[in-house]
From TrEMBL:
Record's keyword terms, sorted: Membrane, Transmembrane, Transmembrane helix
Transmembrane segments: 208-230, 251-280, 345-365, 435-459, 474-494, 506-533, 553-578, 654-679, 726-744
GO molecular function: mechanosensitive monoatomic ion channel activity
Membrane topology, from the record: Multi-pass membrane protein
Phylogenetic placement of the source organism: Eukaryota, Metazoa, Chordata, Craniata, Vertebrata
Organism from which the protein derives: Prolemur simus
Protein name: Transmembrane channel-like protein
Amino acid sequence: MAQPLAFVLDVPETPGDQGQEPSPYDESEVHDSFHQLIQEQSRWVAEEGLELQQREPGAPGSGHETLLGPEGAPVHSTATLRILASMPSRTIGRSRGAIISQYYNRTVRLRRRSSRPLLGDVVTRSARPSIRLYDLELDPAAQEVEEKRNLLVRELQGLSPAQRDHMLRGMPLSLAEKRGLREKSQTPRGRRRGQPGRGGLFSCCSRLRYACVLALHRLGLALLSGLHALTPWRYALKRIGGQFGSSVLSYFLFLKTLVAFNALLLLPLLAFVVGVQAAFPPDPGPGPRPACTGLELLTGAGCFTHTVMYYGYYSNATLNQPCGHPLEGGQCRPRAGGLPYNMPLAYLFTVGVAFFITCITLVYSMAHAFGESYRVGSTSGVHAITVFCSWDYKVTQRRASRLQHDNIRTRLKELLAEWQLRQSTRSVFGRLQQVAVLGLVWLLCLGTVLGCAAAVHAFSELMLQDPVAAGQEVALLALPLVVCLLNLGVPYLYRCLAALEPHDSPVLEVYVAVCRNLVLKMVTLGVLCYHWLGRRVGALQDQCWEDFVGQELYRFVVLDFLFMLLDTLFGELVWRVISEKKTKTRRKPEFDIARNVLELIYGQTLTWLGVLFSPLLPAVQIVKLLLLFQVKKTSLLANCQAPRRPWLASHMSTVFLSLLCFPSFLGAAVFLCCAVWQVKPSSMCGPFRSLDTMYGAGTAWVHHLEAAGPRLSWLPWVHRHLVENTFFIFLLSALLLAVIYFNIQVVRGQRKVICLLKEQISHVSAHLPPLGTHLGDSSSAHLLARPQPPPPLCGLGC
């Protein structure tokens, strides 16, 4: 059996090693010394030569023979051997010694900072480890490494246990090395404490505390892993991104973002409005309560009316803690010291604060998305980066590696498609024809939008003239049904018209479809908002119109979800079955990103419009989105195919968040501001029944603070000058615009500097020969060791 070959790197010693200074004291000097050492030994290798030598089994350690290549081929050049000698596999021993020396010097500084006696009082300066003794041998001197390890152990013994553990955890060594250093650095007293049966009560308490901390830590990790496993998008997003690309993945990421927004909106409402009113329920009104029949899940009326679901259930009184001793006659007396809870004020401020938090989070998410998608720099070389730098070598499972493989493959398809799109051009006649077709299609689409708006307005007026009698709540589904049918059928008409448009880019095609669907839905919602606040308020003067608006928005949300399920069933499943069974083409439908995203924005807008009249509507929206995620994911994987024209959706999430912020959230905020400041609340129900406007609750609270005493006089001043004064709002808007403008200018400046630096790099690389032509030449070692400095960056103003 052939014996394995043992190689050593034989570097002759030079007189320059004599009289060197001892080891440095801090990390920077250690780094500089190692850098200088590598440079000097590289220079020796370049000047005197470096050979790979074979050690014979019976020869003494100093005898070596030159190792020749196969069939008498010449050995590698000096530059190649120098590169091979710097590989991690041949410097592992040297790196371990460097780590030990580095942490030895760090412990010296810690001891000096802690005012402990230095080891230098016992060990002389010359006995400290000298990194100058290291050479380019494959097997490092074990005696020298052991000497450094012993010095490090002695320094660790002088540290406190906390500092010692912190230092050992930060060392880039293996666990076996760390355990050995910890065992050797423990004092005899510490070893006796660690032995069982000798610690007494103190050792028992320490072990018990350590066991409790460890159990709590494991419990926390188990809970976190359980919560992570319960999320519906644990593996689904990776699988969708790998099979269908970033364009389809952007829809599911947007759906996940909407779940987070609704949870953030729901939490303060549950804590300060719904939970408090549920703890102190109001007196039930006269008359029997309606029984639940099951239709309430669709209509939102019936037994749902007198619950915390809607605005009319909440009282306009000041809530206290539970009663103390009841008075005569069984009347409830508030307990002494009970804190009053003003429900009208809590209702108004909680909704306002929840909307403000949502606004801040939405603006931050949009800014973060802009920073991610429009990152400073360019995409030059991104193909090579994707090929050589995208694989995650920590992946060990077959399923995860398959998902990562699909992701990289789809990413390369999208990058290549984008690059081909940039290379293609269109003639002048083709551009004129394209503009003409686009103008005609846009006129047809706008005419369709106007027709739909007129139909919704006419049907709402018809519903207003024929009010629904009690017990016939099913007839209330007529208006939501008509609107949902229009929202379902018109996008398919837009899709047919889009087939006539000669779009070069699939990204532009999606953006055009998004804009058309957005115009349709926003115009429809505008007509409905006028119907609710303009017409319904006047028609329901003697009734609780807030409950009607809340129930109407609930019906719109539920029917929108049902129509999305029907569209998924007939638009994807039935189409796939027909194409496979009848046409034999095996052609599955593609996932319509524009229509599905606009349905999400439309549903979220309905939720924001109805949160003032139905505080639990965000909870309904969360359940709807979670069910929709599962349905869409299953239908996508089973019934849809990947886009025939791959394209990179680098800005899709940013565009979706922008549409969610400006048309959707801004429109909902304007609607709620009109309801709070302009419309008179109903006098039959709700927390604002005795006020002229909902905002009157805040004004009454300010007057109450003014009468309370001079200690709270600053709060009315803040309300008068910061809340009611419009100058402060304009000032905040001006500051926000100034910050946005400043960030835009900073990004432009960074891009300009990057462009100038790239030009400078291109000029430098043009004057240097390629690296590959000199790897085999021994004279290139001087070029690699001493590169020429680049010329000054004159483009940057130097």
